[in-house]
Design goal:
The complex is a heterodimer of chains A (about 140) and B (about 140).
Chain A (H helix, E strand, L loop, with lengths): L7 H22 L5 H9 L4 H15 L1 H9 L11 H18 L3 H10 L3 H24 L3
Helix pairs in contact in A: 2-3, 6-7
Chain B lengths: L1 H19 L4 H8 L8 H20 L21 H17 L3 H7 L5 H31 L1
Helix pairs in contact in B: 1-5, 2-4, 5-6
Classes of the chains: A mainly alpha (about 140), B mainly alpha (about 140).
């Protein structure tokens, strides 16, 4: 376990910027800012013009940490309290889940919730509950 | 122009993820560890993101069309079905195990941290496996019909 510091202001600012990015993409391209949807569209292209804007969004995301370093002097902290095996198992399950569930924290949790979509609200409640149960079981039942 | 604006929207999103702590598995897992070393920061991330998006979408979606495209591409389904709920449940289990979600991991690739690449490779494998499974299930459904 790694303890982390409560960062309400920085997290609120980050959240607002996540929202701003989503609003700009909707205002200009008319698209949902969902990491799952954007990634799925890159893997299964639907024509060149549909593919290229998704790659541009992805490149923008990947350069986000560099911009943070430029502005604050620090790269985002990445502390991994789990084993490599858990990263692999978790990553695989996330890939299966978001494909069948048609969205993740950004698509359902932010954009869909903001649209008050019943499917996104149900999806978000579901994954928040199962994530909470999983963390509880791993930390307090299995004691990892 | 479309590509520049798309890039910028991704960049702002990626900056937001970087600042927020969503790219840090320790912070994500601690948010869910209410019974242990709880860090409530992520509630502020979700809150800030949803409020800005809620207000922004209200304004933007009143317009007849987006600025650089023909129409708004919004999901129209409202029904709840098994793939949605089951898939989201599985996603949550994976998120709880690894601590990364796709929106957190993609920007984090830019830090060069090896763990992010391991997670993302497994994520892509899961997406491809699910797509194959989906098309198999779909074809079986077609054959039945």
């Amino acid at each position: 376990m790694i303890e982390t510091v409560f960062t309400p202001l920085q997290s609120l600012t980050g959240g607002a910027l996540i929202g701003l990015g989503a609003v700009i993409l909707m205002a200009t391209m008319g698209r949902i800012m969902g990491a799952t949807g954007i990634l799925a569209g890159i893997l299964q292209p639907n024509g060149m013009s549909d593919w290229s804007w998704r790659v541009a969004v992805l490149l923008g995301m990947v350069t986000g940490p560099a911009l943070m370093q430029l502005l604050t002097g620090d790269l985002p902290e990445i502390q991994v309290p789990v084993s490599t095996l858990m990263l692999v198992i978790g990553g695989f399950l996330v890939g299966i889940g978001v494909t069948f569930g048609a969205g993740c924290t950004s698509g359902h949790g932010v954009c869909g919730m903001a649209r008050l979509s019943p499917r996104s609200i149900a999806a978000t409640i579901t994954f928040m509950i199962t994530t909470g149960i999983t963390v509880y079981v791993i930390r307090h039942v299995l004691g990892a | 122009m479309r590509l520049i604006i798309s890039y910028l929207s991704g960049l702002i999103f990626g900056l937001g993820i970087s600042l927020s702590g969503m790219a840090n598995p320790a912070k994500v897992i601690n948010f869910f560890d209410v019974a242990g070393i709880w860090d409530p920061s992520l509630a502020f991330v979700m809150g800030g993101a949803v409020i800005v998006t809620f207000i922004g979408y209200r304004v933007v979606l009143k317009r007849p069309a987006p600025a650089l495209s023909d129409s708004f591409q919004l999901p129209t389904r409202r029904d709840l079905d098994l793939p949605l709920i089951g898939g989201s449940a599985v996603f949550g289990v994976g998120w709880g195990i690894a601590g990364f979600c796709p929106g957190g991991a993609l920007p984090a690739l830019g830090t060069g941290n090896i763990n992010v690449f391991i997670f993302t490779a497994a994520l892509l494998a899961g997406i491809v496996a699910a797509k194959i499974l989906q098309s198999t299930l779909f074809n079986r459904g077609q054959a039945k019909a």
